[in-house]
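[Q] Does anyone have a clean structure-token version of this?
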Amino acid sequence: MRKNAVEFWVGVFVLIGLVCVAYLTIKLGKMELLGGGYYHITARFSSVSGLKNGAVVDVAGVQVGQVESIALDTKEMVATVKMKVRIGTPINEDAVASVKTSGLIGDKYIRIDPGASEVVLKDGGSIKETESAVDLESVIAKYAFGAV
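[A] Here you go.
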């Protein structure tokens, strides 16, 4: 009987350990199981060169979300970026979304400049004003070949 009790408690501790490892894996991997408290918005850009899924979305230098997907609208030939933004972060209807680079050759991210409108975007809303990424290669080429 004593052997069964020891095996039972060893099993309980192993189960608790596995639950802890699963929790840490999810937290450190920045995954969400049940939505994670985000709402979705979209923005359309003429170019999102270098932007990737999972890129940071920030407002005033604070990370408030992530790029969820990037797709090409073949009718208008623009990139549609779907973002998830933390619930409790109001994005105004007249906000401006820009594709920026962190540092000189760093990763691309989306910066949202808040607007002055009283109307806040809801889940599934869309940012109308956007600024595409600056193509550093074309700017350098213009200076190098005297096209400026």
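[Q] Thanks! Anything notable?
[A] The beta strands are 38-45, 56-59, 62-73, 78-86, 96-101, 108-113, 125-127, 129-131.
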